[in-house]
Amino acid sequence: MTVTQDARLVVLLSGRGTNYAALQAAANDWLGARIAGIISDRPTAPALDLAHRHGTDSVCVDRGQHPDRTTFEASLAAAIDGFESSHIVLAGFMRVLSADFVRRYHGKMINIHPSLLPRYRGLHTHQRALDAGDAEHGASVHFVTPELDGGPVISQVRMPVLPRDDAASLSERLLALEHRLLPSTMALMLQSLVELRDGELYVENKKLDHPLQLGSDLDDRGRLTERV
Is residue 106 annotated as a catalytic residue, yes or no? Predict the structure, then answer.
């Protein structure tokens, strides 16, 4: 795997930071990049303590301390730029970002979302999958665009919905798969194999007509199968 030696990631989050922890474990082992820092919009986010234990720099840009979205996003951009990151990862960041902010980081910002996009953008995805009677559920990694959870989907992981499942069990089972999907997708991106061109996804200079599926198109370390 060939990865840019100065690849630096910044992770935006609002809660526990379990996907950050999965990225950090990969960075410590095989990912070939380092997490320059994390940014939370909540001063009580458990992820801030988690980052401290990992020795990762952290910044809190408290939404409650800013009078409006414009000033909040100005502070958020300053924090991101201060880490001089090559990629920005939204991992449970519970703020809707403005179109201008998203365009500022066009092609550099990805998000992990707990559904098989384009199904169930927004919140309460596990219950919505159950209410719809879906046979399978999953998670998606996509480029962030001005449309909420509407950017081109790079990769997905799928799992069956079991008869005994409720929203809590779906969430718990899916989270373990998210912890594989996010580092794998980040590894693929760090190899410069993924590009966003005019709103379309290209992998190895080929237009992608379906999201890469973890386990069939993409392995756990971001390597493509021969048939992609």
Answer: no
